[in-house]
Design goal:
Length: 159
């Protein structure tokens, strides 16, 4: 690859984001409600993580997608309950979940520690991402998402 190839690829990518998508992602294409958008992002992340499990690999991506799906599901719940969600760090959403009554302070602290100790370790490769870790994180994300959907009785879930 030459520098010119890289610049052309960069120009193409920049241009692509300036255009209206010809084939937008189904389910996310016309979502105006910010809370529903977060819920549906979580749905897509869980679907992608499940797909990757079926392909027997990509453990780091499954862990990352599961943690982000947890965040998006909690954000949907908090916004659905009428709380404002300012731009926050990854771990602040757990405190918002406590404020909105989704779970206890103890659960929020454990989720925060799980993220701090393990998501970062897997993502930055300071630890070893393994299948069991990915599977249990994926199951946690799936259960939390299902709980949010049940508690809010939303029909906007894409799962």
């Amino acid at each position: 690859m030459t520098s010119q190839d890289l610049e052309e690829a960069l120009t193409d990518a920049e241009d692509a984001f300036q255009r209206r998508p010809e084939h937008p992602e189904v389910g996310l294409e016309h979502v105006a409600d910010a809370a529903v958008l977060q819920l549906r992002k979580a749905c897509r992340l869980l679907d992608a993580a499940g797909f990757l499990f079926d392909r027997n690999g990509h453990i780091t991506v499954i862990i990352e997608a599961s943690f982000v799906a947890i965040e998006r599901s909690i954000q949907f719940y908090v916004e659905e309950k009428g709380y404002d969600v300012p731009g926050q760090s990854h771990t602040e959403v757990y405190g918002l979940g406590v404020r909105a009554g989704l779970f206890s302070r103890d659960v929020a602290d454990r989720l925060r520690e799980l993220w701090r100790e393990n998501r970062s370790e897997s993502y930055y490769r300071t630890g070893i991402a393994g299948e069991y870790r990915a599977r249990t994180t994926y199951e946690l994300a799936t259960k939390l998402h299902a709980e949010v959907v049940e508690l809010t009785r939303t029909r906007d879930c894409l799962c």
